[in-house]
Fold this protein.
Amino acid sequence: MNYFLTEEQQMIQELAAQIADEKIKPVALKYDEEGTFPWDIVKILANSDLFGVFVGEEYGGFGGGIFEMALVVEQLSRACGGIALAYAASGLGAYPIILFGTEEQKLKYLPPLASGEKLAAFGLTEANAGSDAAGIQTTAVLDGDEYVLNGTKQWITNGGEAEIYTVIACTNRLKGARGFSAFIVEKGTPGFSFGKKENKMGIRASVTSELVFEDCRIPKENLLSREGMGFIIAMKTLDKTRPGVASQALGIAQGALDEALKYSGERVQFGKTISSFQAVQHMLADMAIQVEAARSLVYQTCRFVDSGAKSFSKESAMSKVFASDTAMKVTTDAVQVMGGYGYMKEYPVEKMMRDAKITQIYEGTNQIQRNVIALEMIKEMKSGK
Amino acid sequence: MNIIVCVKQVPATNEVKMNKETNTIIREGIEAIINPFDTYAVEEGVRIKEKTEGKATVLSMGIPSVAELLKETIAVGIDDAVLLSDRAFAGADSLATSYALSMGIKHIGEYDLIICGKQAIDGDTAQVGPGLAEKLGIPHTTYVRKIEELRDGYIRCQRMTEDGYEVIEMPLPAVITVVKEINEPRLPSLKGKMRAKKTEVKVWTSDDIGADKAFCGLKGSPTQVVKTFVPVHDIQNEMIEGEPAEQAATLAKKLLSMQFAISIGEEN
């Protein structure tokens, strides 16, 4: 299929694919087993300039958008969804600054993120604030020229490894969702530490940690936008980057399909390769149809988001729901096609199945996404669009 | 420091097919890659260039399509690419290749160090690096696994041998051929790939570099490949048992009977 990528997008895709095949595939199982952070791969990605594809040229990037980021994430995820997440989560941490940062904040924080010298992370979720993000307990109180942060963020991807964190905290309890604000917090700030590192089912190469703030004082200038904008910043950021998660799911699904197809051409039963059996052929065909459909939706959504569209919550949610449900289905079927071997850790598809699951859960569960989609549809109908 | 890296296009396969009539390698219709050993030469050239803030140029001789391949070296940091391409160069053996490359290098101009891979995976001769140095009248060393020191007019490097390494000092300019132990070639960068896209590979003919056609290509190649074959190793083992003295006696008798040794003295 010709996806009509620009020359630059083709180069980005080609380079990410080369890194995935040559550098990530050989170590994917090792990182899954150990659950350690893939610094050596992050370094390769940095040297290849891939962290800069979605950052403006004036800040050391290549001036691309979410599509460029998604192309990278898709290719890396074919080889390992966990390692790809280390990359994607840095993008998620950078986007609040890209979208809402002042010129000073952008000039200070984006260049090292674009070069991959530093990683970013995004801190929204808390123990009691998941789908209901308005339940955030972390507080930020202005004291002179500084904000004082207190509270604990949970399940933060790249937590502990990243240098730059965008964190959502409550600045005015009385104002509900309008009482939240977004801040940039640098690693090493006194009072900012990292708690428990989680032991996860999948995406084990990606680190997930607690961020602990105990009277952590940050300069007033580290407030993003203005007080009360925290919830909007978080939602706009997630709307923008959700196709990134969709592309992670897409890549995992493609990787699983590739493995299943290859295996079906090698595995001999009843004197024939299993790819000659119609039962297997139909499964492979269905997997391919779903992957291709997911890709069309993800790419089209990325193009729509990058076109400068004002509102894309619905489209962004659709791409994430469809691609992640596809990834779950396709990876499960890949294990099925490969039978007992597919269930074993020597083959990569059982890992892909574990990795796929999270894409239905994070950056908004698929249930919450369906709420968003339906509410947007109803809103559009009422407004006569 | 000005570095010139010589690379060769080779077929991306271990099963090299030969033209039965000319006994030369069939290159048509097979995916071409840069000789893997040469990628280490490219990486070393780029590293030296980066360290010394110099210039690294890649040079090759081959059919016009090699130009596209040379762009891959630009993507990993090489500054400039030159391809010697001319019908007159066709059918060159290692001597004629060394000559053509030496003329190309003279045409490029100033250089401090020339780096080649230890050998090509198709011909496996390992002759072009040293041949090039002879044609240019400069020193060379082969199988370099590490450059210990490099400064104006001087290089000290480790030359890999079967049981260790030798330390070689040479004045510059010089030629080195490198082994894969010397570094780990980097992947391209996005900036590099974009630069590669825009870069125009210089294509020079024999006339451009002032080469004497009598020394180029098939005409300039004294090597005649009469036959190529993979040697069959048929080794048989026999274990000799007994006490050391008995073993020695049995072995001596066997060698004598096979006329591999001569008997000295009458006793024992």
The radius of gyration of chain A is 21 Å. Strands of chain A lie at 120-123, 139-143, 146-157, 164-170, 180-186, 192-197, 208-219, 223-224, 268-269, 272-273.
